[in-house]
Design a protein that fits this description.
The protein is of the alpha+beta class and 135 residues long. Helices cover 41% and strands 22% of the residues. A four-stranded antiparallel sheet has the order 3-1-2-4, covered by helices on one side.
């Protein structure tokens, strides 16, 4: 077993932003360390680019890193009010998301997208013979 420092994207800091969190885990290899870090609370679980970096460290760095993580105010807050109080302390570790959000299939913001959705809806209505629907 080796000791790893895993750098991961953490959430709850605003849409399209992430907090760069460091986690210290003990695992067999880098892949297992990344999987363990992904399951820690506050890490973006559904983002496939959530793990930024994984590196091997020694026992002394592992112990000091765990002590630092226990005193980190971001991981100690329990609600949004606590997090707003510590925002000045953590804002230098908050970065804009570099990879676009893949949760939505298409953007509904522009006019062409809305027209495309309306055309698709009308084609389905014609296909199934439904003419008295509300859009």
């Amino acid at each position: 077993m080796q000791f790893y420092e895993v750098e991961a994207k953490c959430g709850h800091v605003g849409k399209n932003y992430y907090y760069r969190g460091l986690f210290y885990v003990r695992a067999r290899d880098k892949k297992e360390a990344a999987a363990m870090a992904r399951n820690i609370p506050r890490v973006k679980h559904d983002n496939k680019f959530a793990i930024l970096n994984t590196r091997v460290i020694d026992y002394a760095a592992f112990m000091s890193g765990q002590a630092l993580q226990r005193t980190n105010p971001y991981f100690r807050c329990k609600n949004i009010q606590d997090q707003k109080l510590i925002l000045p302390y953590i804002e230098n570790e908050i970065f804009p998301e570099t990879v676009p959000d893949y949760k939505t299939k298409h953007s509904n913001d522009d006019r062409k997208s809305k027209q495309k959705i309306m055309r698709r809806t009308f084609r389905k209505a014609e296909k199934y013979g439904i003419y008295d629907f509300v859009v």
